[in-house]
User: Fold this.
Amino acid sequence: MRIAVEGCGHGTLHAIYSSIKKSCQVNGWDGVDLLIIGGDFQAVRNSYDLNCMSVPQKYRSVGDFHEYYSGKRTAPYLTLFVGGNHEASSHLRELYYGGWVAPNIYYLGAANVLRFGDLRIAGLSGIWKGYNYNKPHFERLPYDANDVKSAYHVREIDVRKLLLLRDQIDVGLSHDWPRGVEWKGDHQALFRKKDLFEADAKAGTLGSSAARHVMDRLRPPHWFAAHLHCKFAAVVNYSHEETNGQSQKGAGSNGGWDGANEAPGVDAATEVIRAAPPAPVKNSDEIDLDLDMDDEADDPIPAPSANSIAEQTDASPAANPTKSQASTAPPTDLATQPPHTDPIPHPPTSSVPDSLRARLPASFTRPASPPPIVPLPHPPTITNTLTNFLALDKCLPHRNFLQILDIFPLHPSTPPHP
Assistant:
């Protein structure tokens, strides 16, 4: 099945569809069967939806989607997407379980799995913020400044739905990268391009623990992501873990994955993929203003780590090429960290006196650390042991934002009888 995969949409549907058409011409294809967008779709119906989108007011734009929503245009390819951290949350919350946002454009919901032909596709929306992970979706309209940001944080109640799956899926999709996946590809080249990622990767805080937990559980042959605005390919080989007994222990070097320093082979990760031509340039003098620069800027949480800075910045300077690569070796203490062991941020200073707090029951005391995740037996019906991971950029000129490839179902279904 011919699939087109795009990174962050950012409301540029015209340019995305145009680039797919050109890419198909280069490859001699007459089109694609499905387009997958990895988040930041921005399904903005009108200017009121912009009030529920986490973007600085001076950078807000209605974008292209309203033309497809109103029926002025129709998507030329069936389009499937998950939510990111720059979405019209008021619109997508109406489709919490997934649904059609416009003719031929389908939103997967907070977490969902569907079948397209013989392919089973699972998707997880949002980005990882540990302090909201175990909370319900408490946001209610009209959103305040905090609700606009917390609305797109991944919740455990949604992840649990995907963990209940017992059958093999073919494609996994998330906006945020699965945590630790950077060590399964050419991490040295990644850190040269995005030097702010290195410290977070070594600390085990780059990416989403929820996405990693789902990927480790479902083990799809393909996993696509976006968010960090760069192209990156990796291969996760779960057969190594089974050989060493790590899948039962839930531990191993580099966040539970063995052989993390091994860069994937070209045949396994990128040979079947061909880059698309750049999108049309609207203005050659236009300055690229990254929408992620405001990410979590107003959150009442302590000073951000380099990971949050990396999420907010796209145009980070390249690292010195003469710098020793020995410092990019992954840490060895990540093996002791379960997937959801982010430290809980300290709350802001409260005006409630300690004498009143002392009168509260013990159940009101903030726990020192989140409870560890209990490893679950691996479903015997999920047999795949090799996951090809691919992250893509956002739709801008001279960016690697689009790939087209053939995907075959791992277990084709039996054709129905006439």
Observations:
- The mean pLDDT is 81.
